[in-house]
Amino acid sequence: MTSRILIVDDVPTNRIILKVKLTAACYEATMAASGPEALALARRSPPDLILLDYAMPDMDGIAVCAALRADPATCRIPVIMFTNTADEAARISALRAGADDFLIKPIDDKVLMARIRNLMRARDTTGFSATTDAIEGLGFAEPVGGFDEPGHIALLAARPETALRWRKVLAPHLNDRLSVITRAAALEGAVPAPDLYILGAELDPGISGMQMMSDLRSRPDSCHAAICLVLPNDAHAEAATALDLGADDVLRDDFDGAEVAVRAQALIARKREADRRRARLAESLRLSMTDPLTGLHNRRYALPVLGRMLAGAVQARTSCAVMVLDLDRFKLVNDRHGHAAGDTVLVEVARRLSAGLRPGDLIARLGGEEFLIAMPGISDHEAFEAAERLRRAVSARQILLPSGGALSMTVSIGLALSATGYETPDRLIARADGALLAAKAEGRNQVTMGGRTAA
User: Fold this and answer.
1) Which pLDDT score, from 0 to 100, does residue 228 have?
2) Are 399 and 447 in a shared domain?
3) Is-catalytic flag, 369?
4) Which part of the chain is the GGDEF domain (predicted)?
5) Residue 339's domain is classified under what CATH number?
6) 103 in Cβ contact with 115 (< 8 Å)
7) Spatial distance between the Cα atoms of 307 and 153, rounded to a whole number of angstroms
8) CA 175 to CA 150: how far, in whole Å?
């Protein structure tokens, strides 16, 4: 699908030239001649990126950018602002208003296209955000904290005095921690890793900042950190390459501390938002596979895992034992003592069952008072003895209730072993469930396997 870029400029010639360049790069370009027109177009059909002129007579670029950021429908659209003058105050104002970059005309075509590609990749997190928002809307995820402390910025240069100069320039404008570190220290890893690395064009002899960036991106501790490369002012080709290879930003080697502080804050905020969403997504996935009451896996998780266990048993020419366990007369607990007591019983039974399993065994709550246990690589005799141990563990001690008092609980267990050939999880569970029904019919509090019982 072709990405759409909105060009906002009050000069027709400028709009046409940009459209020709974007069309040649296989982008779909639309145009607006004023700020109000741009806002209307962006709200009606949000583009993938906006190229915005700073100096427009009716509504300047800063006002347009601020309006875009204030509207939930347009707040995540990347914005590149451009101008004819190298006004440092204007650049800082634009970045503070929410512009992702501020370029001075004439703009190097390679740098512009690389920056567009760079922001398009960053924009992919919008789709990721929509996915996590949808998952959170289902109630799976809970708020994940711990991302609001001051940031940590690591400075790496070929000469320590260069990095110290960067720190001196940045320190008055930032509350974040600024650390001068070596390449070796960065690659050894830190916990937690810095939020942002600022790298010189050259580091150790024969090692460039771009190589260092690749090293950092390849390591789990630093792969999600923001990275800026400091390049010579005229290194347009290197800047374009750096952006294409994964740099989040490129800085001039005579950078202004106030401007870079604003850029750094935006990069740290974006990185932490991505961290937050990854944590939420991981928690959502965990909750989707976990029973919220007992903390055991649920049926959705258990069936595929059991399928892999059964396939492995066929390959290894061993058996896999499956138990379906049901608490005896559990309904009476809820009816006589309340659902809080029932929840307490389920949690404690889950704990006792889990304590009696081997590493690699599977336990899940199928629903209600029913549990599933799978034990790979086990004989029928060993499986029967294991089921008996679990049955006795449940009934061995009374369970204390939250309102006072205690209950004795028992469990009935249906046991089935996998056949010589592959057997589906559903069929094996059905056989174990049939054995469970036999255990219930024959008096409860017992293990049944293929018609054999023990009490």
Assistant:
1) 96
2) yes
3) yes
4) 318-452
5) 3.30.70.270
6) yes
7) 47
8) 7
What would the pLDDT profile of 255-278 be if each residue is shown by its tens digit? Answer: 999 999 999 999 999 999 989 988
- The tokens describing 51, both together, are 């190229």
Q: What is the pLDDT of residue 435?
A: 96
What stretch of H or E contains 247? none
Supply the Cα-derived Rg of the chain in whole angstroms. 31
- Regarding whether 449 and 301 lie in a shared domain, the answer is yes
User: pLDDT tens digits for 185-236?
Assistant: 888 876 678 999 999 999 888 899 999 999 999 888 899 999 999 999 889 9
Spatial separation of the C-alpha atoms in residues 280 and 271, rounded to whole Å: 14
CA distance 189 to 218: 12
Beta bridge mates, 180: 155
Which neighbouring-strand residues pair with 411? 327
Residue type, 263: R
Instruction: State the total domains in the chain.
Output: 3
| Whether residue 258 sits in one domain with residue 149 | yes
Catalytic residue among 149, 369, 370, 388: 369
pLDDT in tens, 11-59: 999 999 999 999 999 999 999 999 999 999 999 999 999 999 999 988 9
Domain range spanning residue 70? 1-107
Answer yes or no: do 4 and 26 share one domain: yes
Give the residue ranges of the chain where pLDDT is below 50. 126-128, 130-147, 451-455
Please report the pLDDT score of residue 105 as a whole number. Answer: 87
Listed residue (329, 314, 311) closest to 369, CA to CA:
329
| pTM of the predicted protein model | 0.74
Residues 171 and 205 in one domain: yes
Helices 109-137 and 257-288: crossing angle in degrees, nearest 10, is 40
Instruction: Please name the helix (run of DSSP H) or strand (run of DSSP E) that holds residue 453, with its range, or none.
Output: strand 452-454
Q: Is 297 helix (H, G, I), strand (E, B) or coil?
A: strand
Q: Which segments of 224-271 are extended strands (E)?
A: 226-231, 249-252
Does a structural domain hold residue 346?
Answer: yes
User: Looking at the domain assignment, is residue 136 inside a domain?
Assistant: no
**Which residues have C-beta within 8 Å of that of residue 5, sequence separation ≥ 6?**
22, 27, 28, 29, 30, 47, 48, 49, 50, 51, 116
Say if residue 195 is in the same domain as residue 220: yes
